[in-house]
Automatic annotation (TrEMBL):
Organism, as annotated: Anhinga rufa (African darter)
UniProtKB keywords: Carbohydrate metabolism, Glucose metabolism, Oxidoreductase, Pyruvate, Thiamine pyrophosphate
Cofactor section: thiamine diphosphate
Protein name in the entry: Pyruvate dehydrogenase E1 component subunit beta
Subunit structure: Heterotetramer of two PDHA1 and two PDHB subunits. The heterotetramer interacts with DLAT, and is part of the multimeric pyruvate dehydrogenase complex that contains multiple copies of pyruvate dehydrogenase (E1), dihydrolipoamide acetyltransferase (DLAT, E2) and lipoamide dehydrogenase (DLD, E3). These subunits are bound to an inner core composed of about 48 DLAT and 12 PDHX molecules. Interacts with DLAT.
GO biological-process terms attached to the record: glucose metabolic process; pyruvate decarboxylation to acetyl-CoA
Listed SMART domains: Transket_pyr
Boundaries of every Transketolase-like pyrimidine-binding domain copy: 17-180
Single GO MF annotation: pyruvate dehydrogenase (acetyl-transferring) activity
Amino acid sequence: LQQRRGIRLSAPAPIQVTVRDALNQALDEELERDERVFLLGEEVAQYDGAYKISRGLWKKYGDKRVIDTPISEMGFTGIAVGAAMAGLRPVCEFMTFNFSMQAIDQVINSAAKTCYMSAGSIAVPIVFRGPNGASAGVAAQHSQCFAAWYGHCPGLKVVSPWSSEDARGLLKASIRDDNP
């Protein structure tokens, strides 16, 4: 009726979603969509993630799909890479990307280069996820940014979202990609 009288209605205000919630939504949707997807990392299950990215996912999907690991980045990254090579789609979460340096051999030499070294016959559908760069209160050990370094490694696709919409879409696209 208001439109017939020439009154213009403004669009409803968009719902603001935090990056944390956007990442959680993306993980939830992909875990539900594809049973091969699973999440592993330190504190991702019972604690709901160090930054609460995986909040509620362990309760919804259980121990086989959301897996707490020991503080051993080299070990759980190797497990995730092997699982990806076997046809699963792991999301390997680092509490901070500074800790990915403990698993640099698995990230670069096992995951990133496998497609090239196998002439494209072996896919490695894995996502390495976590916060990267400076943050308040985490000191020098946790404030380095490795995006440019990883971006120069053949076989890795590196994304750095700007907004919650970017974070959600890029995580979903990354999980669906057949290589790291």
